[in-house]
Write a structure and sequence with these properties.
The protein is built from 12 helices and 21 strands. It is α/β, with parallel strands linked by helices. The chain has 2 domains: 153 residues, Lyase, Ornithine Decarboxylase, Chain A, domain 1 (Beta Barrel); 251 residues, Alanine racemase (TIM Barrel, Alpha-Beta Barrel), CATH 3.20.20. Bound molecules: pyridoxal-5'-phosphate. This is Diaminopimelate decarboxylase. Keywords: Pyridoxal phosphate.
Length: 432
């Protein structure tokens, strides 16, 4: 069996079985308590669904996975093995991609801060760099003058106003995005002019990523159109890619009770713009999508054990050996879906309760005001949808970070051990 996870430590052969009590208990035992579970089959499924949906609409299509969403090595490596490019926004992520065996030409280097050394290194590797600010153009100029025989290909990140009905659609209520070169104030035109003055430089693509509240089809249609039209206006002769960033919805669990666009819906909306804009063009650019949440949110869950049911002034607290910092480090107030893996099946008591964690913070609620079957001492709770922006934001707060088990084709492997004192306080970096 070809596998993406090297040096695998087989924890248990699940032999296709569901996660029953004995299995969860034995995994928790090998992990030293609460643990994350990564479903590599689900990840593969997501990759193929997104890829097929878009390829059907526009064949020259590439997925570049957004590392910051979840850069668990085994997860990124699996995506590389499926053919995904790596989208990175720091040198740390860049070096991780190389360490995982990614081809330097398949790394897309975004983000607002890139040092001179980073830019030199990425140009040497012939990665796709999307420039974000003018200071980076200075580094490119220096590189070009020091390496006069090298040709240099670059992308440029574009910033334009996003309004719907007179209101900005950016996330968290921001009016203006701070990333990329503004079209409205002439910065984009100036940046392109500056770059074109360097004889060795070819601007091969435009990039547009915005975090929006709506993630709507109308927004993606509009964004793709803008990028295509700007590309045709400024870089038609050298154009090789249109990179529309990330921000699409993934498949939501039924319990969310929400209808959102499917991968097919996004692909149809974006693909039809690409086909129209480049109808009759001899050289059709690549379409690049940088999915984060939509690729990984539903690939991970978190298992923790009920230590006690505590009653205080009529309020029920279910105390577990995990924390809100494990499953929603941004401390948002919505409850994630969870399952009870019960020790005994005889209790079906309906009750109102909160699920609270191991830290000594009052606000450590894994779930608020749950009305449902009351978990019992010894039961395991499995929180779902914890694949995106959880592991990467999980702080070293009060306790070590938990182990991660990967499940693939009926087997379970340890892909990250629980941290130890020596990992948490690495003596190479700390003075004692
Ligand atoms: C965060 C980010 C993504 C991924 O966004 P999602 O909303 O998780 O899909 C893609 N591209 C860039 C440049 C990003 O910063």
């Amino acid at each position: 069996m070809k596998s993406s996870v090297q040096d695998r430590n087989l924890v248990i052969d699940l032999m296709g079985k569901n996660m029953n009590y004995e299995i969860v208990q034995s995994l928790a035992k090998s992990c030293g308590g609460a643990f994350f579970l990564l479903d590599l089959d689900q990840l593969e499924n997501n990759y193929h669904k997104i890829n097929q949906a878009f390829k059907k609409q526009y064949n020259n299509f590439i997925i570049a996975y957004s590392y910051k969403t979840n850069y668990l090595p085994a997860l990124c490596k699996k995506l590389i093995s499926l053919g995904a490019y790596s989208e990175v926004v720091s040198r740390l992520e860049y070096d991780l991609a190389l360490r995982l065996g990614e081809n330097g030409k398949h790394i897309i280097f975004n983000g607002p801060i890139k040092s001179k050394e980073d830019i030199y290194f990425a140009l040497q590797q012939e990665s796709i760099i999307n420039l974000d600010s003018f200071y980076e153009i200075d580094y490119v100029k220096q590189y070009a003058s020091e390496n006069p025989s090298r040709s240099i290909s670059l992308g440029v990140r574009v910033n334009f106003a996003l309004m719907e009905d007179g209101e900005s659609i950016l996330q968290d209520g921001y009016d203006v995005s701070r990333f990329g070169f503004s079209v409205e104030n002439g910065d984009l035109e100036r940046a392109i002019y500056e770059l074109k003055k360097i004889a060795q430089v070819k601007i091969i693509g435009l990039h547009g990523h915005f975090s929006t509240r709506t993630r709507s089809l109308a927004f993606f249609r509009h964004k793709t159109e803008r990028l295509c039209q700007l590309a045709k206006k400024y870089i038609n002769e050298t154009l090789q890619f249109i990179d529309i960033g990330g921000g699409i919805y993934g498949e939501l669990p039924k319990s969310f009770n929400r209808t959102v666009p499917s991968f097919d819906d996004y692909a149809a909306a974006i693909g039809s713009v690409m086909r129209n804009e480049f109808a009759g063009a001899s050289n059709k650019p690549k379409l690049i999508l940088e999915p984060g949440v939509s690729m990984v949110a539903n690939t991970m869950s978190f298992a923790c054990q009920v230590m006690e049911h505590k009653r205080v002034q009529g309020t029920s607290f279910i105390l577990v050996d995990g924390s809100a910092y494990n499953i929603k480090p941004t401390m948002h107030k919505s409850n994630l879906p969870f399952k009870i893996v019960a020790k005994n099946h005889n209790s079906k008591l309906e009750h109102l309760f909160h699920i609270v964690g191991y830290t000594c913070m009052e606000r450590d609620y894994l779930a608020h005001n749950v009305h449902g079957t009351l978990p019992q001492q010894g039961d395991y709770l499995i929180f779902e949808q914890v694949g995106a922006y959880t592991l990467v934001l999980n702080p070293l707060f009060i306790k070590e970070r938990p182990a991660v088990v990967a499940r693939e084709k009926g087997q379970a492997f340890l892909i990250r051990k629980k941290e130890t004192l020596a990992d948490a306080f690495n003596e190479n970096i700390y003075r004692f």
